[in-house]
UniProtKB/TrEMBL annotation:
Keyword S-adenosyl-L-methionine: yes
One GO BP annotation of this record: methylation
Stated name of the protein: Methyltransferase type 11
GO MF annotation: an example: S-adenosylmethionine-dependent methyltransferase activity
Region of interest (SAM motif III), ranges: 160-169
Keywords, sorted A to Z: Methyltransferase, S-adenosyl-L-methionine, Transferase
Species classification: Bacteria, Bacillati, Cyanobacteriota, Cyanophyceae, Oscillatoriophycideae
Keyword check for Nucleotide-binding: no
Region (SAM motif I) location: 70-79
Family membership: Belongs to the class I-like SAM-binding methyltransferase superfamily. gTMT family.
SUPFAM superfamilies: S-adenosyl-L-methionine-dependent methyltransferases
Length: 286
């Protein structure tokens, strides 16, 4: 990961994570609103529902397939890590590029009484500081879009996964380009470029491209799905909550980069509406 991109991602989340937690809570990811996106549920419950739906998608909720040692790649302030560790009574490790996120996640683990089972550390997902075959669940929830080398990222996920273990990845994608719609248009590329600039993304790829990379890395029993409709309502919910007095005051104190991110929320909303932004899932085993 280049130093410049590393610094941009770190600074973005160092500056914005505190405000996100204050306004939107501990889960820094999309919510699930039913397969068609029409389920009426509050934002926090939708985010928890997303976790549960992902576990169900990967067949992790069965008694025979309960993880004991989990790594959360791109852990934010520990929302998913702590949820999964508590749910399965498992050991959890979360990694992030943001020291602010790691510090807050560590505090939250202590507050939850999970400090002996869950730990957080600053680490690069392209060079994870773990031995081969360490974890029986690699969890990556909306971090793949930040990776400048998607192949290296999935190779690392494969390396640290135990034989028989499971990868669950959900990530921002662009629409497939191997169908009738063809290659991305100039206007679509322009839209994506604006999102990249705001949210510190090097680039995104399509779900079929992720499938190809995962199989080339050696993953087996691969399942994939597009949950764009199920998560798309999330952005309008966030936009609405961002214009409250509390959020506006928080934004003013969080710095220009965070303000710019808030002002650009409609880029994601419009991206989903036009079918350009997709929410891709992959579940696979080693």
């Amino acid at each position: 990961m280049t130093n410049t991109l590393y610094q941009q991602i770190q600074q973005f989340y160092d500056a914005s994570s505190g405000l996100w937690e204050e306004i939107w809570g501990e889960h820094m990811h999309h919510g699930y609103y039913g397969k068609a996106g029409n389920r009426q549920v509050n934002r926090r419950q939708a985010q928890i529902d997303l976790i549960e739906e992902l576990l169900s998608f990967a067949n992790i909720n069965t008694l025979e397939n309960i993880p004991k040692n989990i790594v959360d790649v791109g852990c934010g302030i520990g929302g998913s890590t702590l949820y999964l560790a508590e749910k399965f009574q498992a050991y959890g490790t979360g990694i992030s590029l943001s020291p602010v996120q790691v510090s807050r996640a560590t505090e939250r683990a202590k507050e939850a009484g999970l400090e002996t089972k869950v730990k957080f550390q600053v680490a690069d997902a392209l060079n994870m500081p773990f031995e081969d075959n360490t974890f029986d669940l690699v969890w990556s929830l909306e971090s793949g879009e930040h990776m400048p080398d998607k192949t290296r990222f999935l190779q690392e996920c494969y390396r640290v996964l135990q034989p028989g273990g499971t990868l669950i990845m959900a990530t921002w994608c662009h629409r497939p380009t191997d169908g009738l719609a063809g290659d991305l248009t100039a206007d679509e590329k322009k839209h994506l470029k604006k999102i990249y600039q705001v949210y510190c993304l090097p680039y995104v790829i399509s779900l079929p491209e992720y499938e190809t990379i995962a199989l080339e890395c050696g993953f087996k029993n691969l399942r994939s799905d597009d949950w764009s409709s199920a998560v798309a309502p999330f952005w309008n919910v966030v936009i609405t909550s961002a214009i409250t007095p509390k959020a506006i005051i928080g934004l003013l104190g969080a710095g220009w980069q965070t303000i710019q991110g808030a002002l650009s929320l409609n880029l994601m909303s419009k991206g989903f509406e036009r079918g350009l932004i997709r929410y891709g899932l992959i579940s696979a085993t080693k």
